[in-house]
Each structure stands twice: as structure tokens, then as C-alpha cells.
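Milestone M4 deliverable, item 7.
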Amino acid sequence: MVSDQRQLIDERLKELGIVLPQAPSQAANHELVRVVNNNVYVGAHLPLERGVVAVKGLVGDTVETEQGIRAARLCLTNILGQLEATLDGGLEAITELVRLDGYVAAVPGFASLNQVMDGASDLARSVFGRAGQHVRSVVGVTALPENASVMIGGLFRL
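Output delivered:
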């Protein structure tokens, strides 16, 4: 029997038009998710679609702010897919999102880093409701792996 929490998450994802991607089984020489006590540490994820980086380049140069917002949303979507595949109980096991850490590849002086990161934060609140409210950090950088525009990691609680 599907729990009320599971049903609520599934309904929210469906309303948002989100199909969780299949999570990769391994990432090079590090873990993608590590559970310590009730904390779920999630390594930084890229904005992948069908296994490839969907938004590449510097925000404020070849990437518009709206594309950066989309990239942040894709990063969180990939994190959610990873959690669904990794955790016993999937997303239903999550009681809250504690923190998101975002990295935005941007031109020097790009002042809308928070706006880009809102793509992930807004999605988190849409999926988890009040439990998706979190603290966050966002940093502008000159380059990210695979020329991705955004990379996000986080801390969840079971």
C-alpha cells in the first residue's frame, strides 16, 4: 500500500511534469550519496538530461539567466532521482531538506546568482512542501566539470 507521503510526492512531481531520471550507479572514485545517522549527504550533481549536461557555458555570457534557472532545477531533479534510487523508502524517507549548496559558472560580476539558485529552491518547496524549506549557499565560479553551468549538492534528513 502506498503511504500518504509517497502519494503526495508522486502527485506533486506529476503536477510539475517531472519524471525522475534513472540515477547513475557510481561516480568515479566517490560516493554520490552518504547516509550518516539521519543525515543524507548528497554530492554535487550536474544538470543532466538523458545522461548528458543539458546547460553548458557561463551564465551571463552564452547562458541566459533563465537557462541557468533551468539548470539548477535539473540539478535538483537529478538529486531527487538519486535519492529515490539510493534510499530505502526512496523520497518518502526524507523528512526535510536541510541545505543546498550551489555553484554557478558565471561571468565575473554576474549579480543574479541567487535568482539562478531559486530554480532548485523553488522546486524543493514544490515537491516537499514546508519540509523543502532550507538554508543555502550559492557561489559564482569560473568553471565546472563538463563545462556545466550549475552544480548543486545538499543535505537532507531522514
